[in-house]
Request: fold
Amino acid sequence: MGALMKPMIGAVLIAVAVAWLTPAQAAGQPSGSAMAHTCAGCHGTQGRLGTVEFVPLAGLPEREFLKAMGDFRSGKRAATLMGHVARGFSDDELKAMARYFATMK
Amino acid sequence: MKSKPFPGLSTAPSFPRGRESGLLWAPAHAGATVLLVAGLLFAQSAFAMPTASRTTSLGPAELRATLASMPKGDAARGAILHRSHMCASCHGDDGVAPTGNWASLAGQKAAYTYKSLLDYQTGRRLEHGRANLMRVAVQVLSRQDMADLATYLADLPAVAAPVPESSPQTAKAAELLVRRGDPTRLMTPCASCHGARGQGGVNATPALAGQTVGAFTRAMLDYREGRRVSDAHEGMRQFSRRLSLEEIDALAIHYARLGKRREGAQP
Amino acid sequence: MNRRQFLQAGAGLALASALPGRAAQASAQVVIIGGGVGGATAAKYLKLANPALKVTIIETNRTYIRPYGSSEVLTGHARMEDLTVSYDALHHRYGVDFLFDTVTGFDPDKKQVRTAGRQSLAYDKLIVSPGIRLDYAAIPGYSQAIADTRIPSGWIPGPQTALLARQLQAMKPGGTFVIVAPPTPYRCPPGPYERAALVTEWMRRHNPTGKVLILDPKDNFVTDATMQLGWHRLYGYDIPADFMQDMPAGVQNTGRPAPIAWVRAKDGGTTRGIDARSLTVHTEGGPVQADVLNVIPPMRAGKLAFDLGLTNETGWCPVERRTFESSVHADVYVIGDASIADAMPKSGFSANTQAKVTAQAIVDTLAGRAPAEPVWGNTCYALAGSDYGLFVADVFRLKGGKITQVSGKRYLPLDASPTQIRLGAVYQQAWLKTFTEDCFA
Reply:
């Protein structure tokens, strides 16, 4: 039990730290499209991509995008570099990006 | 607290002391055996991606032999490998893909997973960039590792995947193909090989219940357009060409809906 | 032509077209000088944001040769043709106009540019994406003529890249391939070290007693720890003591000679000059004899930035950070390597996201809106070997008037698993495709 609890406490601490460290928003939040454009170098212009190694983001349901980015950010989901990128965005910003990609078909 | 991360694994996910200069990342001067391995690694490098046209399927006899020699899997060990080798990142902690882009593996037939991992490792499956990702990801797995992973995933319950809106007619059309097939097109019912509930069948015939719409559709189109040739009996290459694109979409939705309902999931 | 002549040439322009479109936003004219990553991306995203804009790229060359990934030509992983990118998609799919010509005149007051082909173009907004200039003369004994014929830099891909590839292939068995690394700031921070790694890997098969030696005027470089760990694992490179403390357990130096070496400034690696005839590099630590010599000289903003008077005393272009509008001339924007962008590295990915922010700022400004809150990114993959991928990943914001990295950790963790590292190499190859598409297709 103790062995199981330790990683859980660790995860909670990380989650708190991430929430604390992510840039404060509200006033100067970039638009969903502006943030989404930073993804395009790998995930395709407006999230559109053929069958290559990266995930196409166009049309991705919002909840799937948010779950993926949330898990990358907290470290719950293993990644090469997506964890680093996800830590550059707040919850509200991820929501705005999710909305942008969900509307792209 | 210092702990050994994954005790007892032959394919350790980290670089434990004493093996740091071992087989995986061999210095040039470390000896003949190592050089041989290094040469092999180079041949399989990201740069050296073979073309799909060079890939061939495992024939029925080879498939039988491969499955007959499959080691007995250890699900507990598979659970550890599933995380340490990053399988969980795209296929989900519980084998349920977090997005519709990747395949769900929960409840998959162990024989199919084992055979697929081998196909990726040997370059038999290399239909496009995503298959290439798998080819590289499974490079360091042993046959025992593959059997362990396959056994672990087979024990997980399949979960229904999200589906786009569709009409009752679509559902009916799919139902008909699954249960009855279409004799006018010489199509046997899908269920005759994949099971009435999409639970999979013999000879590494995969389970389809709970498969994501994205992965299902991609597989069908890859078979249909000749990119994927990994079906030993050539069944899917035949059937996928007799189906319309609408029927493929309908079947994708049909199979995605099967499996356990997840709490809070969209219908 | 010096800068004064250049500006005079611009001032002499006839006001033929009376600047149509200045008033009406719908038909506003944006002229972009330079069809590299920055210019191409800006053109594409301007048209995506407002298809009614008239967007013209002035570019000297009919096709683009991409610098990112160009070291793979040295080792035969890629051919020169693979680096060549067409402008067709930008023209046909997005309606971007091209003028294949060289800018020879500029009048910032009348907002016009003139070309060698005697074309004059009026603009409402001008984007300048001039890239870098290699300052060959900064190294005594080196020059462009020597670089073109005997000691290539290959840092702007082209004939020098092909020459360097031929020299590597013809190098005598057991020879030394010397790379003179540049001082900061320079284009593609991990690039010289990735090149060294790929050449080392190539030699293991083709020239097994050959060596790679990096002479560096710096003590550190971007990705230095992860890159050296890769060299250690792949080539038996001994990691310097000051990097050792961060390395994962089990990493142990052998004390044996390795086929790759990095001589830092503190160890005398700074180059004082070269002798082109004997291929000798005179460093602070003494002379070094090369069999193939690859000098990557100091860099400044591309020549055009100087001609247009957009640079300051640093040799780079000061800009207003939110939009990258030049601090020197209004309605002129400088993006990419040539701009001064604080924490952002001089990389293709940086230029790509700068272009998008600037394109949106221009669209907003022309529509009478204030420019939106900017966000930039940088994702660079690099290889320590064909199977060994590492990276830098950043998100940047505007904070207190400076471009600031907000995402924290930047590099592949030193304790990354073999699977992560292998996948990094696959993603690096995929990135070359997807990134090129986002810029040019």
